[in-house]
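Retro notes (design track)

What went well: tokenization of the new backbones is finally stable.
What didn't: we kept losing track of which sequence belonged to which structure.
Fix going forward: every design gets posted as structure first, then sequence, in one message. First example under the new rule, 313 residues:
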């Protein structure tokens, strides 16, 4: 069982505390999304995890060991971090050099190219690759040793919708095989369909560590109501204790409640309905609330903050 554990990790660059007393874990068989805005400390954390930066204090371990304590870390951890491509080198040669340095055979190169679905460009120079193609080659490189742990910094960046779908399915399959998959992103909604667990940081500090189910369960359902009797309908809902916000026009509004409840209540009040549409779960607005630097960090990052206030207009 290869768990990734971040324990009271801190990293200072001079005056800047990039990572502050951060603790969380990523577990085998699960995809963990590591989220936070630009500059929140994601890459710094992942770099410490794979021995590219030294913690100021605290530890980052894989299977209880620091990266530098592994004799052959590449066989345990596949890593995708920015850059590292020689533009004049062909994709296959890039992988061949890596394969030689980590001691795996040519068969793994073909498997990795196949994994990244980048075999068609194997003999092209990386300098001519698109962002998405480089991302796929990076993912192929991370899978060279068929490792039980994958640490991927922004793997969704630069992928087209088809590529995102491919990566989602691929990471799901890898986790289902029992691997530990930790990927960073700054778009919570983008990881909604991939991640089992979510870790959100802001300003180097932990804001939330929860399962995706726990997180989405915290979202208040809301419904768009369109009716020629908007004022009457709004009053009936407010009288029943619901929060109502303005919609796009005079005949519609948004109410924080489940569609069934709203429909029944307005039906009893004899209101004519032209539309009753459950709103998309507003994960993104929850995310913005969680990473708001003005908000105090939650006492219990697994539970707080307990409420959301979806914007209605
Ligand atoms: N080598 C360094 N020297 C000085 N400051 C650094 C260094 N590396 C990172 N930082 C600072 O640490 C903070 C966290 O940066 P980091 O790259 O970890 O953020 P991130 O969450 O990965 O952001 P992004 O979403 O933009 O990739 C930033 O303030 C950054 O400027
Ligand atoms: Mg980064």
């Amino acid at each position: 069982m290869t768990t990734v554990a971040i324990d009271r990790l801190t990293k200072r660059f001079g005056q800047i505390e990039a990572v502050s007393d951060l603790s969380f874990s990523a577990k085998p068989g699960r995809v963990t999304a590591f989220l936070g805005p630009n500059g929140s400390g994601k890459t710094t954390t992942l770099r410490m995890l794979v021995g590219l930066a030294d913690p100021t204090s605290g530890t980052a371990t894989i299977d209880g060991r620091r990266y530098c304590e592994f004799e052959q870390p590449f066989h345990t951890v596949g890593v995708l971090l920015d850059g590292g491509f020689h533009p004049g080198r062909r994709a296959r040669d890039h992988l061949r050099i890596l394969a030689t340095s980590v001691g795996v055979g040519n068969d793994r190169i073909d498997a990795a190219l196949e994994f990244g679905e980048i075999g068609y460009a194997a003999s092209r120079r990386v300098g001519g690759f698109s962002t998405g193609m480089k991302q796929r080659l990076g993912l192929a490189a991370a899978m060279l040793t068929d490792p039980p742990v994958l640490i991927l910094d922004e793997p969704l960046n630069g992928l087209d919708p088809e590529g995102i779908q491919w990566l989602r399915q691929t990471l799901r399959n890898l986790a289902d095989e029992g691997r530990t998959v930790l990927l960073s992103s700054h778009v919570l909604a983008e990881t909604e369909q991939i991640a089992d667990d979510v870790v959100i940081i802001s300003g180097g500090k932990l804001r939330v560590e929860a399962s995706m189910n726990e997180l989405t369960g915290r979202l208040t359902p809301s419904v768009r109501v369109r009716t020629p009797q908007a004022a009457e309908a709004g009053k009936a809902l407010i009288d029943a204790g619901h929060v109502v916000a303005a919609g796009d026009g005079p005949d519609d509004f948004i109410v924080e409640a489940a569609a069934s409840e709203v429909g029944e209540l307005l039906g009893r009040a004899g209101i004519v309905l032209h539309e009753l549409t459950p709103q998309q779960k507003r994960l993104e607005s929850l995310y913005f609330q969680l990473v708001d630097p003005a908000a105090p960090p939650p006492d219990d990052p697994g539970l707080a903050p307990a409420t959301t206030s979806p914007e209605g207009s």
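Added context from the reviewer: Residues 42-43, 153 surround magnesium ion (ligand 2) (CB under 6 Å).
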